[in-house]
Amino acid sequence: MAKIALKLEQKTKLSQIQRLTIQMLTLHSQDLTDFLHEQVTDNPLLDIRYKDVRSSSGDGKEKPIDNIKNRGDSLETGLMKQLRVQNVPKATMLAAGLIIRSLDEKGFFAGDLDLLGQDYALSLEDMEKGLALVQSFDPPGIGARSICEALLIQTRRHDDAPPRTEELLQDHYQEFLTGKWQKLQKEMELSNTDLQSIRDFLKTLALQPAGQAETETEFVRPDVEIYTDESGRLAVRSLEELPEVFFREDLYKEYEEQGDKKTRTYIHKARRAFLDLQSALAYRWQSIFTVMDCIIRHQEGHFLYGDTLQPLRQKDIAAETGLSTATVSRVCHGRYVLFDRRTYAIQDFFAQSYRRDSGAEGEISDQAIQQKMAELIGAEDGAHPYSDQELADRFAAADIHIARRTITKFRLKMRIPNSSIRRRLKNG
């Protein structure tokens, strides 16, 4: 017998104008143009016309508002496409899907196979088969549980790998990682030439499998431009070439005078829809302008003089402007801005803040920390490069407290190898 249960919960009920405003905030130029055409089609009292987009200056120069951004399928999407064409048992297919969804941003699998399969009644054997299947996909090394395994998978995919490379990775990886070349040569009975050949080959492999994922090229068009006005101040203007939607007052008056009650109710509703549309459009642009104006004020030194970014987060803009955090997020997501003839994502102008220790004033951005890290590493002694902890200690001496793991995260983001590898590279 079916069980009937009552559940009391609170839900936010949005008005029509609120839903319309939220929808339009997420739309970019071409999508918004298509949306406006749909509104005109649905509402017979609306019409549309395009503005004259010819340059008022008459210089005939085109603005470089197009740029290219790599935006292909996500890693997960690409792997799922490869999975769908496999002819394997259902349990293996399900296990592989679970593993793909559990990969980290670098393409590694760091989970527990047995625990991951329990909720779906999959055995450890099923999960191992699923992992082996994922590791056979492209990019090579995907699904590896460590850098060593990623290198091993890639090596097996290369027919031209030097002899005994697999043996070195399987049995002598720690000696290789720590640069104990003499011990390695003695244990494996390798000549200098053979060892150098293996080292040169391994340098060509990817340490992060996800970094090899291919992307498709797509043209993007910025919605706004940051420019310097006649007084030398930064300003914002729209680059959208949106059509103008207007209300047919002549038809409205005609139907108002001659139509019956049902017709008048319909045209009143049509007028209300037009007013809602105009309000949503105005709110959309005002929100974009408000967010961009706030970014300009905080990052003025970056735009004018190339200074490092100041600490700035979306919630900081929300608190300063009175906009909701959700609105700021919708404005920034996937939107681009033109500055100095180059196109940037709005997200590029945000920077995480790190508090200085007592005795120092203000905060420092993650970009400034990375710049300082690059300077320290660039000037380090090649025979004794800084470890991540030593870099953290350097910052602590400058009244900037940063955890070692944060230093490691920044170093990996900057694609700087660890101190052991840097020492070997600088000393041949």
From TrEMBL:
Signal peptide: none annotated. The keyword Transcription applies. Residues 66-240 form the RNA polymerase sigma factor 54 core-binding domain. The keyword Zinc does not apply. Residues 265-424 form the RNA polymerase sigma factor 54 DNA-binding domain. It comes from the Bacteria. Gene3D superfamilies: Homeodomain-like (1.10.10.60), lambda repressor-like DNA-binding domains (1.10.260.40), RNA polymerase sigma-54 factor, core-binding domain (1.10.10.1330). Keywords: DNA-binding, DNA-directed RNA polymerase, Nucleotidyltransferase, Sigma factor, Transcription, Transcription regulation, Transferase. InterPro entries: Lambda_DNA-bd_dom_sf, RNA_pol_sigma_54, RNA_pol_sigma_54_core-bd, RNA_pol_sigma_54_DNA-bd, RpoN_core-bd_sf. Belongs to the sigma-54 factor family. This is RNA polymerase factor sigma-54. The gene is rpoN.
